[in-house]
Write a sequence for this structure.
């Protein structure tokens, strides 16, 4: 269907009135994207009877220069350069009525180092466009020239490991539960027990900010008492993600400054604070030697459905540019959405310097990160010690495994829960490095480690049958052998 | 107490055979293994003393184990760790670090709370061992 250009040229192009987008220069099948172009891949579902090429050209038009009618003021500009160009439209395999539209944007359309500007262009207007039933931004290719205008992760995986003095194994965390209602003193108790038991981090939940049961200063003070006490008890660096999310930037800066003053190594923000606020906090974190944790609160409202919204792989790319150090990216085996192949794609985006296109992981473009810092993916939600071999296999070594319920819900208490997770992890890493087939021998390796560790034994017993086997709503459209051209 | 720095401190102390397998894993990855020792295990003491240089271009863990045993003869009363350095672009740091020798008795750390303005507290962690001069600790 990628046939000839229909672009009207010369004087006729600017005759007053309405003209199809595909004739206005937004459909250019012969166009070869430049190395400096930003490329977006949309999944377009046109209304019945709407030509998919026209629908795709409309997306290109409405996300760049076009409006619904011809305007003579185009002629005052280098309009051809500024028009986004849809250069390829493919039917989506096994999904009648859906099309992949590849659209190239000239670099001059975007402001340096601004996710707000990038997203205002690419997703600002088109998602409510009437001729479309649904629209999804699946992936983006960000040229090196643009990547280099962003700070990137404030700390990055390598420096985080150096600061925390932790190498060769995933880091361990837990979210304090119950997520609402604990007083500052009780909250700090959970933090102390979990860290002393062997975790590296504890975490505020997304909606722990400053509420009647616990104002933020109380939380920060008691948490830092807990962190320092656990640090002295173990001889290890510990941290707790102090959530500085608040109603205004001024409040967030105040909370971040207090966290710094108390000696915290890490603060936390929620995705819902918005892209600009995230970039501001990333700059603050870089200036203040602080690791910046991002909780992707709210993302499922637009990432989960396959036909409409923005894929999480795009959000992950934006967040790497924006400069956070941690991002929740799925567990595969836990309670929240995420099929293994798609999740693998997200993890690669966070951790690699170069992502080759890999359709079977949902990654459509080669992406060169040009030495931008790497960010640590976080696996959180419904995971426990008994899955350690699977977690290591799916998620690798540079990841934070967060066992909230899997620590705090331990029958022998929080310290025991933390110890069970740490022992399970170290035993699995030891076995992996020795060359054992840890994925298949996992249960055996855990059982052997449990022989000298009662807390692990108890954890394996309590959660032995817990799995979350539901079908994913979002998965790649291509099987490993398929190619993108049909 | 038991200091839990390094990748395997929650497991029973590794046997020499287990240590050797971990070293072999590192060498197989092309990483250079360094033996480091200290009698000041403060969590922010990054620079333990080096027992020679990182062993570049080594293929067999036996060489590292020999050096470890030499190091133990001299500094067996201190903490000794293995650190594996990866020089690949984009990493250029440690890939694995784990303790392979401990003092018989680990006194641990004192947490000092310096009460300042308001409810603020400045925390200082001090190893009990460093009350004595370097070289005379853990004896």
């Amino acid at each position: 269907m990628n046939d000839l250009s229909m672009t009207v040229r010369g004087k006729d192009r600017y005759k007053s009135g309405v003209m199809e987008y595909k004739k206005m220069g937004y459909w250019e099948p012969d166009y070869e994207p430049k190395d400096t172009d930003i490329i977006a891949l949309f999944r377009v579902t046109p209304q019945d009877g709407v030509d998919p090429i026209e629908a795709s050209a409309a997306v290109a038009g409405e996300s760049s220069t076009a409006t619904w009618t011809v305007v003579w003021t185009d002629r005052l500009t280098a309009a051809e350069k500024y028009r986004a160009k849809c250069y390829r439209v493919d039917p989506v395999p096994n999904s009648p009525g859906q099309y992949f539209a590849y659209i190239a944007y000239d670099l001059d359309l975007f402001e340096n180092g601004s996710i707000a500007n990038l997203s205002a262009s690419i997703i600002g207007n088109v998602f409510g466009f009437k001729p479309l039933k649904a629209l999804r931004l699946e992936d983006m290719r960000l040229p090196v020239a643009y990547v280099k205008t962003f700070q990137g992760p404030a700390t990055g995986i390598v420096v985080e490991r150096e600061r925390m003095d932790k190498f060769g194994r995933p880091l361990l965390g837990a979210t304090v539960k119950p997520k609402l209602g604990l007083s500052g003193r009780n909250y700090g108790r959970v933090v102390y027990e979990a860290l002393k038991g062997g975790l590296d981090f504890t975490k505020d939940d997304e909606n722990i900010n400053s509420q009647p049961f616990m104002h933020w200063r109380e939380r920060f003070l008691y948490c830092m008492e807990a962190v320092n006490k656990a640090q002295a008890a173990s001889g290890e660096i510990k941290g707790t993600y102090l959530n500085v999310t608040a109603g205004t930037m001024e409040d967030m800066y105040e909370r971040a400054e207090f966290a710094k003053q108390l000696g915290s190594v890490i603060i936390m923000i929620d995705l819902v604070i918005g892209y600009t606020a995230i970039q501001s906090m990333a700059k603050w974190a870089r200036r203040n030697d602080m690791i910046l944790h991002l909780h992707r609160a709210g993302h499922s409202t637009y990432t989960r459905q396959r036909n409409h919204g923005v894929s999480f792989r795009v959000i992950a790319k934006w967040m790497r540019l924006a400069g956070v150090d941690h991002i929740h990216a799925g567990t595969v085996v836990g309670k929240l959405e995420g099929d293994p192949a798609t999740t693998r794609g997200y993890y690669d985006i966070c951790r690699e310097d170069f992502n080759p296109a890999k359709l079977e992981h949902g990654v459509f473009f080669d992406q060169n990160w040009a030495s931008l810092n790497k960010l640590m993916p976080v696996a959180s939600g419904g995971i426990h010690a008994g899955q350690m071999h699977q977690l290591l296999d799916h998620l690798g070594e540079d990841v934070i495994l967060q066992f909230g319920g899997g620590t705090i819900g331990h029958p022998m208490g929080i310290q025991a829960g933390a110890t069970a997770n740490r022992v399970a992890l170290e035993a699995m890493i030891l076995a992996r490095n020795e060359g054992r087939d840890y994925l298949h021998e996992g249960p055996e390796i855990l059982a052997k480690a449990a022989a000298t560790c009662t807390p692990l034994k108890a954890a394996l017993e309590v959660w032995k049958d817990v799995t979350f086997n539901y079908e994913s709503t979002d998965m790649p459209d291509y099987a490993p052998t398929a190619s993108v051209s049909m | 107490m038991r200091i839990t720095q390094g990748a395997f401190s929650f497991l029973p102390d590794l046997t020499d055979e287990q240590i050797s397998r971990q070293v072999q894993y590192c060498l197989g990855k092309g990483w250079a293994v360094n033996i480091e020792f200290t009698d000041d295990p403060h969590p922010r003491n990054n620079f333990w003393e080096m027992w020679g240089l990182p062993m570049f271009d080594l293929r067999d863990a036996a060489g590292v184990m020999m050096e470890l045993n030499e190091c133990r003869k001299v500094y067996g009363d201190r903490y000794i760790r293995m650190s594996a350095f990866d020089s690949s672009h984009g990493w250029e740091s440690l890939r694995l670090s784990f303790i392979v020798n401990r003092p018989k008795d680990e006194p641990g750390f004192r947490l000092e709370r310096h009460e300042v303005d308001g409810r603020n507290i400045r925390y200082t962690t001090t190893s009990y061992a460093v009350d004595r001069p370097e070289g005379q600790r853990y004896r």
Remarks:
- Chain B touches chain A through 42 residues (CB under 8 Å).
